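Lab manual, section 2.4: Encoding a predicted structure.

Procedure: take the sequence of the chain (285 residues), apply the prediction step described in section 2.3, and record the output as structure tokens. A sample record is shown.
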Amino acid sequence: MLTIGELASYAGVTVRAVRHYHAKGLLPEPERDHSGYRRYGAGAVVELIRIRTLAGAGVPLARVRELLQADEAEFAAAVADIDERLRAEIRERQRHRERIARLASGDSLALPPEVVEFLDRLRSLGVDERIVEVERDGWIPLAARSPGRIPEWVARKRQQIAEPQLIDFYLTLGRALDRTDDDPRLAELADKLADYITRMADEQGEDYVDDADIEPLFAKLMDALAFDTAPPARRLIELMKERGWTGWTRLERVDPTRAVNDTAARRSHDRRNHGVRASRPPSRP
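Recorded output:
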């Protein structure tokens, strides 16, 4: 006859595990002998090893009792069911591993492969990483909102960046990110970009330069993402508006004369407000 410690040692488990199986009703707990100890026979060793083996295979303890009492056919069916469940768990864990692995791969975490390839192409062309970030941040909500149109949009972007003028624009914009709003080179960049867009619109149609079909409110959200990442982009859009085009995510023709007047009026309003604030005496406590 064995003590609980000897039983645990023979079965390859801990005493705590034996007591746990007692509490779950999986292993009968013997009566104490005249010395006050519980003594276990050889059958308890066999039973405990079976419990340990099933539990170690991932069988929930709630099903272990059922399997211990099952006949051969029932046992085989239950094992097949458990095996299928474990296979499903393995597949799910593999998907988790793939997602975790993607955390280390940057852009591919939230973007489809064709967009990641496009961003890598921009990098290979020497485009400033901040511009690539603007592009990436724009693609993320697009991919989440309209995944079915991503191949179409990426194909158009690939076609557009094959134009040397557009790549030159990307490179020039990257250099402009470190400039102030009044830097004359921003105006030069706006001239080049407006000329390019106008030529493309005249030759290919306006759908060529604005084919994304994005709702205005969603376009404003994406514009805000771009402006947060690259603040000079906001000033560039103002300059572009004075040259007949507006928008970052959605390009639209505008009346440049009206745009100039609107910009002048806004600046005049800002100067007046600033002057009022500057001349206003401090408030009393």
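Check your result against the sample. The beta strands are 245-246, 252-253.
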